[in-house]
Amino acid sequence: MQLKPEQLPAHLKRGLAPVYVISGDEPLQTDEALGLIGQSAHDLGFTERVVLQADARFDWDIINQYADSPSLFGEKRLLDVRIVAGGGPGQQGSRALMEYASRPSPHQVLRLITGQMDAKQRKSKWYQSLDRAGACIALWPVTGQNLPRWIETRLRGRGMTITEEAVGILAQRMEGNLLACAQEIEKLILVCQTREIGLQDVLQSVVDSAHFDTFGLVESTLAGDAGRTARILSGLWEEGTEPLPVLGVLIWEIREVIKMAHQVAGGASLEGITRQQPAWRRRSALLARALDRQGPTAWMGMLRVAGRVDQIIKGARRGDPREALLALGLLMSGVEIPFPDAGPTADAIPPGGAG
To answer: What are the DNA polymerase III delta N-terminal domain coordinates in residue numbering (predicted)?
Structure first.
């Protein structure tokens, strides 16, 4: 059966399923789902826990061996199998999981933990077998437009409400960092004097915990989100990040996009390309949007602009490195502004004229 995360508490009140598949890339969501299942299992006498890491060399037959081997002390068992290599379980794992699903153990609950799964993986035979035998919980990313509702739901579960203005500010400040957002909610619950959190409560309490990470720029530029690109860059400068590593990430992104754009132009499918590259697998939809917005020629032009930014950072051209990086980031996001370039420095001008 398919379960939404918010349906899990009610499901557990009716009893445990013999198998759970928990898929998602957000650690907070995964940990909370595991915590709910684990608490219910413990209450029902599942006091033993075995944790297995399923890498490329993992012997999947062990899950059925555990099913056939009750605990020496008669304890019921939680068996956690975490796929750590990305993708699915492979042929051996698929066979073992389908066998397990056909005869789940009465003294054991299997929890299979994976990263985000695409539609093809969810249609696989092993996944469908586990879905029929137990419950599958897909944990989708809480993106910007869904974050306010996530905050409201979380507060409602604690008997609190929040005003529209306050939830908007909180979501904006916590962008990209769900764990920090959850922690901030807990802090607000503790300090708020009423059952409704208002704008002033948020402004007084919230520190800027947004996760301004250089690789966050990859997603914001691919998505064409110029506002978020500018905010991330501003946050990086406030944190004291040097411009050169930021430029390195953007150049890497541009080159990767150009390479994949040429592969697509040659007849390859974008889904097939990204499936082979872990760094791009979950960004496939964003990449498709970026390629629809700007073609290979435009991305080649961005690479030339990046070269000018590099010269500014290294002092070979006049200009502010941070302003130049902002112009490049916005260009990659689909917004063009005048490039802050005053030409080569005196030391970089060759004899006979400016370049």
So the answer is: 20-132
Tokens of 226: 């110029």
Q: What is the pLDDT of residues 179-200, one digit of tens each?
A: 888 888 988 888 887 899 988 8
Domain range list for the chain: 2-139, 147-205, 216-346
Sign of the alpha-carbon dihedral angle for 267, 270, 273, 279: positive
DSSP, collapsed to helix, strand or coil, labels residue 256 as helix
Q: Quick one: pLDDT band at residue 282, thresholds 50, 70, 90?
A: low
Q: Which fold has domain 216-346?
A: Zinc Finger, Delta Prime; domain 3 (1.20.272)
Instruction: Produce one character per residue of 53-63: b if its CB has 16 or more CB atoms within 10 Å, e if not.
Output: ebeeebebebb
Structure pTM? 0.59
Q: How far apart are the C-alpha atoms of 219 and 240, rounded to whole Å?
A: 21
- The residues that bridge with 111 in the sheet, in sequence order, are 20, 80
- Token code pair at residue 297: 């020629």
Distance CA 105, CA 263 (A): 47
Q: What angle do CA 47, 49, 55 make, to 5 degrees?
A: 170
The CATH classification number of 147-205 equals 1.10.8.60
Q: Does domain 2-139 have CATH number 3.40.50.300?
A: yes
pLDDT tens sequence across 286-345: 888 888 888 889 999 999 999 999 999 988 888 999 999 999 999 999 988 887 765 665
What single DSSP character describes residue 148? H
Q: Are 121 and 88 in contact (CB under 8 A)?
A: yes
